[in-house]
Amino acid sequence: MAETQPDANGQTVDGASEYFRNTQRPKQLSKHEALAKEFIQYHVETNPDRRIAIVTSGGTTVPLEKQTVRFIDNFSAGTRGATSAEYFLQADYAVIFLHRQFSLLPYSRHYSHSTNCFLDFMDEADDGGVIVADEFQAKMRRVLQQYQHAKKNRLLLLLPFTTVTEYLYALRSLATLTKPLGPRTLFYLAAAVSDFFIPADRLEEHKIQSRETADGKGSGKKLIIDLDPVPKFLKTLVQQWAPKGSMVVSFKLETDPELLVSKAEESLSRYQHDCVIGNLLTTRKWEVVFITRDRGEKWIRVPKARRSKSFSGVENMVGLADHKKEPEQIDLEGGTVTEGMEIETLIIPELKRMHDDVIARQERH
Ligand code: PAZ
Protein backbone atom coordinates (compact mmCIF):
# COMPACT_ATOMS: atom_id res chain seq x y z
CA MET A 1 0.00 0.00 0.00
CA ALA A 2 1.46 3.36 -0.98
CA GLU A 3 1.46 6.37 1.35
CA THR A 4 -1.26 7.93 -0.79
CA GLN A 5 -3.05 6.40 -3.72
CA PRO A 6 -6.03 7.27 -5.89
CA ASP A 7 -9.36 5.57 -5.03
CA ALA A 8 -11.97 4.44 -7.57
CA ASN A 9 -13.04 8.07 -8.10
CA GLY A 10 -9.51 9.28 -8.64
CA GLN A 11 -9.39 10.93 -5.16
CA THR A 12 -6.21 10.64 -3.14
CA VAL A 13 -6.58 8.21 -0.24
CA ASP A 14 -4.22 8.35 2.67
CA GLY A 15 -2.68 4.86 3.20
CA ALA A 16 -3.09 5.11 6.95
CA SER A 17 -6.79 6.01 6.72
CA GLU A 18 -7.36 3.12 4.39
CA TYR A 19 -5.55 0.79 6.76
CA PHE A 20 -7.87 1.77 9.63
CA ARG A 21 -10.96 1.54 7.43
CA ASN A 22 -10.09 -2.02 6.50
CA THR A 23 -8.77 -3.22 9.86
CA GLN A 24 -10.94 -4.03 12.85
CA ARG A 25 -10.59 -1.86 15.94
CA PRO A 26 -8.83 -3.93 18.65
CA LYS A 27 -11.03 -5.09 21.53
CA GLN A 28 -8.84 -3.66 24.30
CA LEU A 29 -8.43 -0.23 22.68
CA SER A 30 -11.29 1.50 24.53
CA LYS A 31 -9.93 0.33 27.88
CA HIS A 32 -6.43 1.54 26.99
CA GLU A 33 -7.79 4.87 25.79
CA ALA A 34 -9.66 5.37 29.07
CA LEU A 35 -6.50 4.63 31.08
CA ALA A 36 -4.40 6.96 28.95
CA LYS A 37 -6.99 9.74 29.11
CA GLU A 38 -7.12 9.55 32.88
CA PHE A 39 -3.30 9.47 33.13
CA ILE A 40 -2.86 12.50 30.84
CA GLN A 41 -5.62 14.45 32.56
CA TYR A 42 -4.09 13.76 35.97
CA HIS A 43 -0.74 15.17 34.85
CA VAL A 44 -2.24 18.16 33.04
CA GLU A 45 -4.18 19.07 36.19
CA THR A 46 -1.49 18.41 38.79
CA ASN A 47 1.55 19.85 37.06
CA PRO A 48 1.18 22.25 34.12
CA ASP A 49 4.88 21.85 33.30
CA ARG A 50 4.85 18.05 33.23
CA ARG A 51 6.21 16.48 30.06
CA ILE A 52 4.98 13.12 28.88
CA ALA A 53 7.11 10.72 26.85
CA ILE A 54 5.30 8.13 24.81
CA VAL A 55 7.84 5.33 24.62
CA THR A 56 7.13 2.47 22.23
CA SER A 57 8.97 -0.78 22.76
CA GLY A 58 9.36 -4.34 21.51
CA GLY A 59 8.35 -6.04 18.28
CA THR A 60 4.92 -6.32 16.68
CA THR A 61 3.44 -9.59 15.44
CA VAL A 62 1.78 -10.17 12.09
CA PRO A 63 -0.90 -12.85 12.48
CA LEU A 64 -1.29 -15.43 9.72
CA GLU A 65 -4.76 -16.50 10.89
CA LYS A 66 -7.72 -14.65 12.48
CA GLN A 67 -7.82 -17.24 15.25
CA THR A 68 -4.10 -16.85 15.56
CA VAL A 69 -1.88 -19.86 16.04
CA ARG A 70 0.97 -18.73 13.81
CA PHE A 71 2.42 -15.26 13.38
CA ILE A 72 5.50 -13.46 12.07
CA ASP A 73 7.57 -11.76 14.75
CA ASN A 74 10.95 -10.07 15.16
CA PHE A 75 13.94 -10.09 17.49
CA SER A 76 13.20 -7.09 19.70
CA ALA A 77 13.10 -7.86 23.42
CA GLY A 78 12.25 -4.29 24.40
CA THR A 79 15.57 -3.55 26.09
CA ARG A 80 15.94 -0.14 24.46
CA GLY A 81 12.40 0.91 25.30
CA ALA A 82 12.34 -0.36 28.89
CA THR A 83 15.75 1.12 29.69
CA SER A 84 14.89 4.45 28.07
CA ALA A 85 11.62 4.66 29.99
CA GLU A 86 13.58 4.49 33.25
CA TYR A 87 15.86 7.33 32.18
CA PHE A 88 12.91 9.44 31.03
CA LEU A 89 11.37 8.97 34.47
CA GLN A 90 14.69 9.92 36.02
CA ALA A 91 14.64 13.06 33.84
CA ASP A 92 11.24 14.00 35.35
CA TYR A 93 9.02 12.90 32.48
CA ALA A 94 5.83 10.93 32.99
CA VAL A 95 5.93 7.93 30.67
CA ILE A 96 3.30 6.06 28.70
CA PHE A 97 5.02 2.78 27.90
CA LEU A 98 3.40 1.23 24.83
CA HIS A 99 5.05 -2.16 24.78
CA ARG A 100 4.79 -5.60 23.31
CA GLN A 101 3.08 -7.82 25.83
CA PHE A 102 5.61 -9.90 27.84
CA SER A 103 8.59 -7.89 26.59
CA LEU A 104 10.90 -6.19 29.09
CA LEU A 105 9.39 -3.60 31.44
CA PRO A 106 11.04 -0.67 33.21
CA TYR A 107 12.52 -1.74 36.56
CA SER A 108 11.50 -5.41 36.46
CA ARG A 109 13.81 -5.77 33.44
CA HIS A 110 16.70 -5.99 35.91
CA TYR A 111 15.24 -9.27 37.16
CA SER A 112 13.81 -10.70 33.97
CA HIS A 113 13.26 -14.39 33.40
CA SER A 114 15.88 -15.00 30.72
CA THR A 115 19.19 -13.27 31.41
CA ASN A 116 18.65 -12.22 35.03
CA CYS A 117 16.35 -14.82 36.55
CA PHE A 118 14.99 -13.28 39.78
CA LEU A 119 15.57 -16.55 41.65
CA ASP A 120 19.33 -16.05 41.22
CA PHE A 121 19.07 -12.93 43.37
CA MET A 122 17.39 -14.72 46.28
CA ASP A 123 18.61 -16.72 49.25
CA GLU A 124 16.98 -18.76 51.96
CA ALA A 125 17.07 -16.96 55.30
CA ASP A 126 17.94 -18.71 58.59
CA ASP A 127 14.45 -18.02 59.97
CA GLY A 128 12.82 -19.98 57.14
CA GLY A 129 11.99 -16.90 55.06
CA VAL A 130 13.41 -15.76 51.75
CA ILE A 131 15.76 -12.77 51.33
CA VAL A 132 17.68 -10.90 48.68
CA ALA A 133 21.30 -12.08 48.71
CA ASP A 134 23.74 -9.62 50.31
CA GLU A 135 25.60 -8.71 47.13
CA PHE A 136 22.39 -7.64 45.38
CA GLN A 137 20.85 -5.63 48.24
CA ALA A 138 22.15 -2.18 47.23
CA LYS A 139 21.15 -2.42 43.60
CA MET A 140 17.77 -3.96 44.35
CA ARG A 141 17.00 -1.24 46.90
CA ARG A 142 17.83 1.43 44.31
CA VAL A 143 15.67 -0.18 41.63
CA LEU A 144 12.84 -0.73 44.11
CA GLN A 145 12.95 2.90 45.28
CA GLN A 146 12.78 4.17 41.71
CA TYR A 147 9.92 1.78 40.90
CA GLN A 148 7.95 2.79 43.99
CA HIS A 149 8.52 6.49 43.30
CA ALA A 150 7.13 6.07 39.77
CA LYS A 151 4.18 4.08 41.06
CA LYS A 152 3.33 6.36 43.99
CA ASN A 153 3.41 9.47 41.79
CA ARG A 154 1.50 7.82 38.94
CA LEU A 155 4.35 8.55 36.55
CA LEU A 156 4.28 5.35 34.53
CA LEU A 157 1.44 3.88 32.51
CA LEU A 158 1.99 0.46 30.96
CA LEU A 159 -0.06 -0.31 27.84
CA PRO A 160 0.53 -3.63 26.07
CA PHE A 161 0.07 -4.56 22.41
CA THR A 162 0.75 -7.73 20.45
CA THR A 163 -0.07 -7.23 16.78
CA VAL A 164 0.98 -4.46 14.43
CA THR A 165 -2.68 -3.40 14.21
CA GLU A 166 -3.02 -3.08 17.99
CA TYR A 167 0.17 -1.02 18.01
CA LEU A 168 -0.98 1.38 15.30
CA TYR A 169 -4.43 1.91 16.76
CA ALA A 170 -2.92 2.61 20.19
CA LEU A 171 -0.32 5.02 18.81
CA ARG A 172 -2.98 6.97 16.94
CA SER A 173 -5.17 7.19 20.05
CA LEU A 174 -2.29 8.27 22.27
CA ALA A 175 -1.24 10.97 19.83
CA THR A 176 -4.76 12.32 19.77
CA LEU A 177 -5.19 12.14 23.54
CA THR A 178 -1.98 14.05 24.26
CA LYS A 179 -3.22 17.12 22.36
CA PRO A 180 -3.75 19.12 25.62
CA LEU A 181 -0.02 18.79 26.35
CA GLY A 182 1.08 20.28 23.03
CA PRO A 183 4.87 20.61 22.79
CA ARG A 184 5.33 18.90 26.15
CA THR A 185 4.68 15.56 24.44
CA LEU A 186 7.65 13.59 23.21
CA PHE A 187 7.25 10.51 21.01
CA TYR A 188 10.14 8.06 21.34
CA LEU A 189 9.42 5.36 18.81
CA ALA A 190 11.78 2.51 19.67
CA ALA A 191 9.41 -0.36 18.84
CA ALA A 192 10.41 -2.61 15.95
CA VAL A 193 7.22 -2.38 13.90
CA SER A 194 6.59 -4.77 11.06
CA ASP A 195 6.74 -3.26 7.58
CA PHE A 196 4.39 -5.92 6.21
CA PHE A 197 1.02 -7.42 7.12
CA ILE A 198 -1.78 -9.57 5.74
CA PRO A 199 -4.96 -7.53 5.13
CA ALA A 200 -8.03 -8.83 6.99
CA ASP A 201 -9.83 -9.89 3.81
CA ARG A 202 -6.98 -12.27 2.94
CA LEU A 203 -6.54 -13.68 6.43
CA GLU A 204 -7.56 -17.31 7.04
CA GLU A 205 -10.12 -17.75 9.83
CA HIS A 206 -8.71 -21.00 11.21
CA LYS A 207 -5.29 -22.51 11.73
CA ILE A 208 -3.58 -23.04 8.39
CA GLN A 209 -3.41 -26.76 7.77
CA SER A 210 -0.17 -28.45 6.76
CA ARG A 211 -2.26 -30.53 4.30
CA GLU A 212 -0.59 -33.89 4.73
CA THR A 213 -1.65 -36.54 2.24
CA ALA A 214 -4.61 -38.69 3.30
CA ASP A 215 -2.42 -41.77 3.85
CA GLY A 216 -0.12 -39.75 6.14
CA LYS A 217 2.82 -40.15 3.75
CA GLY A 218 4.63 -37.43 1.87
CA SER A 219 5.43 -33.92 3.00
CA GLY A 220 2.94 -31.07 3.41
CA LYS A 221 2.50 -28.33 0.83
CA LYS A 222 4.65 -25.24 0.82
CA LEU A 223 3.20 -22.24 2.61
CA ILE A 224 3.50 -19.12 0.49
CA ILE A 225 2.66 -15.91 2.34
CA ASP A 226 1.63 -12.79 0.46
CA LEU A 227 2.20 -9.68 2.55
CA ASP A 228 1.19 -6.06 1.89
CA PRO A 229 3.33 -3.14 3.02
CA VAL A 230 2.15 -1.39 6.18
CA PRO A 231 1.52 2.27 5.28
CA LYS A 232 4.07 4.81 6.49
CA PHE A 233 2.52 5.86 9.77
CA LEU A 234 5.34 8.15 10.78
CA LYS A 235 4.24 10.66 8.18
CA THR A 236 0.64 10.57 9.40
CA LEU A 237 1.76 10.80 13.02
CA VAL A 238 3.86 13.89 12.33
CA GLN A 239 1.38 15.63 10.01
CA GLN A 240 -1.98 14.71 11.53
CA TRP A 241 -2.08 12.84 14.82
CA ALA A 242 0.63 14.34 17.04
CA PRO A 243 -0.05 17.50 19.09
CA LYS A 244 1.12 20.67 17.39
CA GLY A 245 4.73 21.44 18.25
CA SER A 246 5.36 18.09 19.94
CA MET A 247 8.71 16.37 19.50
CA VAL A 248 8.94 13.16 17.48
CA VAL A 249 11.97 10.89 17.67
CA SER A 250 12.06 7.73 15.58
CA PHE A 251 14.59 4.91 15.41
CA LYS A 252 16.16 3.37 12.34
CA LEU A 253 17.71 -0.07 12.59
CA GLU A 254 20.09 -1.40 9.96
CA THR A 255 22.55 -4.27 9.74
CA ASP A 256 24.80 -2.82 7.02
CA PRO A 257 27.08 -0.03 8.35
CA GLU A 258 27.27 1.46 4.85
CA LEU A 259 23.54 2.16 4.87
CA LEU A 260 22.80 3.36 8.38
CA VAL A 261 23.46 7.10 8.15
CA SER A 262 21.99 7.56 4.68
CA LYS A 263 18.83 5.62 5.59
CA ALA A 264 18.39 7.63 8.79
CA GLU A 265 18.89 10.89 6.84
CA GLU A 266 16.38 9.76 4.23
CA SER A 267 13.82 9.05 6.95
CA LEU A 268 14.28 12.50 8.50
CA SER A 269 13.94 14.33 5.22
CA ARG A 270 10.91 12.25 4.21
CA TYR A 271 8.93 12.65 7.44
CA GLN A 272 10.24 16.03 8.60
CA HIS A 273 10.18 15.20 12.31
CA ASP A 274 12.75 16.14 14.94
CA CYS A 275 15.27 13.35 15.15
CA VAL A 276 16.11 9.91 13.82
CA ILE A 277 18.28 7.76 16.04
CA GLY A 278 20.16 5.26 13.92
CA ASN A 279 21.51 2.02 15.31
CA LEU A 280 23.14 -1.14 14.01
CA LEU A 281 21.88 -4.52 15.18
CA THR A 282 25.37 -5.55 16.28
CA THR A 283 26.44 -2.36 18.08
CA ARG A 284 23.14 -0.92 19.31
CA LYS A 285 24.03 -1.22 22.98
CA TRP A 286 27.25 0.80 22.56
CA GLU A 287 26.65 3.43 19.88
CA VAL A 288 23.84 5.32 18.19
CA VAL A 289 23.78 8.20 15.75
CA PHE A 290 21.46 11.20 16.09
CA ILE A 291 20.37 12.67 12.77
CA THR A 292 18.76 16.09 13.11
CA ARG A 293 18.09 18.92 10.68
CA ASP A 294 20.27 21.54 12.32
CA ARG A 295 23.04 19.41 13.80
CA GLY A 296 23.49 16.75 11.13
CA GLU A 297 25.16 13.50 12.21
CA LYS A 298 26.08 13.18 15.87
CA TRP A 299 27.41 9.95 17.33
CA ILE A 300 26.93 8.93 20.92
CA ARG A 301 29.17 6.15 22.19
CA VAL A 302 29.72 4.34 25.43
CA PRO A 303 33.46 4.54 26.16
CA LYS A 304 35.25 1.25 25.56
CA ALA A 305 36.04 0.62 29.22
CA ARG A 306 32.40 0.96 30.19
CA ARG A 307 30.75 -1.20 27.55
CA SER A 308 28.54 -3.98 28.89
CA LYS A 309 29.16 -7.49 27.59
CA SER A 310 26.72 -8.64 24.94
CA PHE A 311 26.38 -12.11 23.37
CA SER A 312 24.91 -10.78 20.15
CA GLY A 313 27.08 -7.65 19.92
CA VAL A 314 30.13 -7.37 17.65
CA GLU A 315 32.43 -4.83 19.24
CA ASN A 316 34.83 -4.41 16.36
CA MET A 317 31.96 -3.02 14.29
CA VAL A 318 31.76 0.06 16.53
CA GLY A 319 32.68 3.09 14.40
CA LEU A 320 32.15 1.39 11.02
CA ALA A 321 28.97 3.31 10.16
CA ASP A 322 30.46 6.68 11.11
CA HIS A 323 30.53 8.88 7.98
CA LYS A 324 32.47 11.67 9.66
CA LYS A 325 35.11 9.42 11.23
CA GLU A 326 35.47 11.90 14.04
CA PRO A 327 33.47 10.65 17.03
CA GLU A 328 32.32 13.38 19.36
CA GLN A 329 33.61 13.50 22.89
CA ILE A 330 30.79 13.06 25.32
CA ASP A 331 30.17 13.95 28.89
CA LEU A 332 30.52 10.78 30.94
CA GLU A 333 28.30 11.81 33.84
CA GLY A 334 25.20 9.77 34.46
CA GLY A 335 24.03 6.90 36.60
CA THR A 336 24.32 3.23 35.82
CA VAL A 337 22.04 0.63 37.26
CA THR A 338 23.27 -2.53 35.63
CA GLU A 339 26.88 -3.48 34.97
CA GLY A 340 28.57 -1.33 32.39
CA MET A 341 27.13 1.92 31.15
CA GLU A 342 23.75 1.86 29.47
CA ILE A 343 23.79 4.01 26.36
CA GLU A 344 20.30 5.29 27.23
CA THR A 345 21.88 7.21 30.11
CA LEU A 346 23.47 9.35 27.37
CA ILE A 347 20.59 9.32 24.88
CA ILE A 348 17.83 10.62 27.16
CA PRO A 349 19.61 13.73 28.58
CA GLU A 350 20.56 14.69 25.02
CA LEU A 351 16.93 14.38 23.94
CA LYS A 352 15.77 16.33 26.96
CA ARG A 353 18.05 19.22 25.92
CA MET A 354 16.60 19.07 22.41
CA HIS A 355 13.08 19.00 23.86
CA ASP A 356 13.90 22.11 25.96
CA ASP A 357 14.71 23.89 22.70
CA VAL A 358 11.53 22.67 21.01
CA ILE A 359 9.40 23.93 23.90
CA ALA A 360 11.27 27.25 24.10
CA ARG A 361 10.78 27.77 20.36
CA GLN A 362 7.03 27.09 20.68
CA GLU A 363 6.72 29.50 23.59
CA ARG A 364 8.39 32.28 21.56
CA HIS A 365 5.75 31.90 18.84
O1 PAZ B 1 14.42 -4.13 21.80
P1 PAZ B 1 15.90 -4.12 21.61
O2 PAZ B 1 16.59 -3.28 22.65
O3 PAZ B 1 16.45 -5.48 21.49
O4 PAZ B 1 16.17 -3.40 20.18
C1 PAZ B 1 15.92 -2.04 20.02
C2 PAZ B 1 15.69 -1.68 18.55
C3 PAZ B 1 16.92 -2.06 17.73
C4 PAZ B 1 14.47 -2.42 18.03
C5 PAZ B 1 15.47 -0.13 18.47
O5 PAZ B 1 16.59 0.53 18.93
C6 PAZ B 1 15.13 0.30 17.05
O6 PAZ B 1 15.99 0.57 16.25
N1 PAZ B 1 13.83 0.38 16.72
C7 PAZ B 1 13.33 0.72 15.39
C8 PAZ B 1 13.54 -0.38 14.42
C9 PAZ B 1 13.16 0.03 12.99
O7 PAZ B 1 11.98 0.04 12.73
O8 PAZ B 1 14.04 0.35 12.16
From TrEMBL:
Pfam families hit by this protein: DFP
GO molecular function per UniProt: phosphopantothenate--cysteine ligase activity
UniProt cross-references to SUPFAM superfamilies, sorted A to Z: CoaB-like
GO terms under biological process: acetyl-CoA biosynthetic process from pantothenate; coenzyme A biosynthetic process
Highest taxon listed in the record's lineage: Eukaryota
This protein's GO CC annotations: CoA-synthesizing protein complex; cytoplasm; nucleus
Residue ranges, annotated region (Disordered): 1-24
Transmembrane segments: none
InterPro entries: CoaB-like_sf, DNA/pantothenate-metab_flavo_C
Domain DNA/pantothenate metabolism flavoprotein C-terminal: 185-284
Similarity comment text for this entry: Belongs to the PPC synthetase family.
Name recorded for this polypeptide: DNA/pantothenate metabolism flavoprotein C-terminal domain-containing protein
